[in-house]
Amino acid sequence: MTDPVTLPDLTSDDGLRFQLTGAGVTVKDIRLELGGGLRCEDVSEELQEGTGCVSSEDGPDTVTLAGPFNFYLPDGEPSEGGKEPRIPPGKYRRVDFVLGEGGLRAYPRLYRGSNDWVMNLTLPEGTALGFEVPYPLTVAEGGSLRVTFRQATWLKGLPLGACFQSGDLPRTDSELLLDAASGECQGAGDRVREALRTQVGLSALPF
What we know:
Strand content: 35-45%
Radius of gyration: 19 Å
């Protein structure tokens, strides 16, 4: 038994605080570039069902997983008892994948007295993402490769508090309309999506 994961708050540049009420992602067509001189023959005996390896004559070999896989982002665990991708022990320096059905979705919520509004942060199905590290990461037997979305960067550079007060961040009875923002928050939706796409870390967990 473990305690429930505490979801992080998200804060704009001028201190407007949102409570993250949920976040998840669906990924497919995962491609993991082997590093450290490893080739497909070095990992072939450790490939699990549904996992393959593509050889390249003029570049790194690549471990592949078709998916889709669904993850609850706060703890990185598969959603609702879904399957977990298994990769062979080895060295990896890059991961590429495509967002599957539902894409990436996060739901920060703003509370003001008895009122609250959700702000839907999403990347659509079909979005291709890729991340690499300057040196290969070693995944040991029973270990894993972890992709981390840096939620602290999602609202960076946006004065959402001032825009909320001035009306430059429009709202309905239940939702903040980030894509309709104007004034100092013009283009806020695109800026957040750019952070979702690019502000990502790659690390290896020992077990």
